[in-house]
Amino acid sequence: MQPHSVVVVDEPGEVRVWRVRDWPPPLTSSILIARNYQLSYLDVKMNFVNSSPVTRPRKSTERDHVDRFLEEISADLPPDLDLTVEGIVDRIGGIQRRIRRMHDETLDQFGLTISDWHVLTALRWAGQPYRRKAGELARRAELTSGAMTSRLDALESDGLVRRLRDPDDRRSVLVELTEKGRQKHEQAMGIQAEKEALLAEALSDREAEELNSLLRRVMITLERRYPGKQD
Fold first, then answer.
1. How far is CA 131 from CA 111, 136, 162, 163, in A?
2. I need a labelling partner for 154 at 20 to 30 A (CA). Which of 174, 181, 195, 215 fits?
3. pLDDT (tens digit, 9 = 90+) per residue, 12-52?
4. CATH code for the part of the protein at 114-179
């Protein structure tokens, strides 16, 4: 396959040319999909004279449901309430709910519950041979031992996991992800990554980096005030 050259305007007056052997490039998302592709960066810079770089059009006058909601209730809000902060909080909540809805649709497509997903994910990120103790899985999935047993029964019946006796502790049970379970987990992650690519459509690469940096600062502030597992 012949490589394609893709021109990307990184900033005013600067152009980068990427040679992509596997186009389009792979999707990335919050669930850390990793796929192999080859990029060779050609350090090409071109100065624009009397011209502006092509940028994605922005509609700053567009309004979302948060704008409309805050406008409707603004007359009844305390005068010292910061509507900018309220807008940030409401938008983060609205985005989170929509991402969760997309995820629920993906799980339903693969016949999985959210608890199933927590179990498969915990096993997948354990690394080879993809095993964890049943008690640890129950804590990670926030399930009682009885509910965990029921989930493992269903997953084992579907051939997604297998239970093994722990050689180091006869009273403990190890749960191992099967090849079928690993494939289903990766397929679901791929579908979800395609849906989460909607986030990239709204932002340029630079804007996405800036947003990530700002959200990180907010998260660090909240983690200092409310340490420990919150999700």
1. 22, 10, 9, 9
2. 195
3. 444 444 444 443 444 333 333 333 333 333 333 333 333 33
4. 1.10.10.10
